[in-house]
Amino acid sequence: MKGWMPELKRSAWVALVAALAATPVLAQTSNFGSMKLAPGFSNSAATAQGFTSGSFSLASIANRDRNNNLCLGYAGDRDVPDHVMTLEQSFSRLTVQANSRGNKPTLLIRGPGNVVRCGEIRIEDTQWGPGDYAIWVGSAASGQKFNYTLAVRE
Asked: How far apart are CA 112 and CA 127, in angstroms?
């Protein structure tokens, strides 16, 4: 009976680490808010505002995405995305676009299973499963700041 306590603590520690590893990487916080979307969502529910800033290279999250596109640009923080998009159901196709006057924003989206999508100005892709998607909107140059509107369309 004497040795059961350290073994119990070790088991509890292993269980805690396993639970944390299974927890989604995405924090439910973001720099500019979140959107929750279900099929048939309204355009107003799928639009957000923000601005670029920072010197964090998006390539440090992923050099290339699932379609072998380069992940380019600079954002504010690796651990806090600019937006969190929660899809309540699967979508066969979505377009995520960042519009900015005269600037060329970059996008990195990390979703369930750490699937990454990258692009400049717009990402059009298929097979969007339910879950949380972290979205970073970047600028081509480190420290470049400009306002943008993020829009998601079916």
From this structure: 12
CA–CA separation, 100 vs 120, rounded Å?
12
The DSSP code sequence of 15-73 is: HHHHHHHHS-S--S--SS-EEEE-TT--TGGGEEEEE----EEGGGT-SB-TTS-B---
Residue 18 has pLDDT above 90, yes or no: no
Farthest-apart Cα atoms in the chain, separation: 72
Give the pairing of strands 147-153 and 47-51.
antiparallel
Report the C-alpha gap between 115 and 20 in whole angstroms.
19
CA distances for 18 relative to 4, 11, 14, angstroms? 21, 10, 6
pLDDT tens-digit map of 42-71: 999 999 999 998 899 999 999 999 999 999
pTM: 0.81
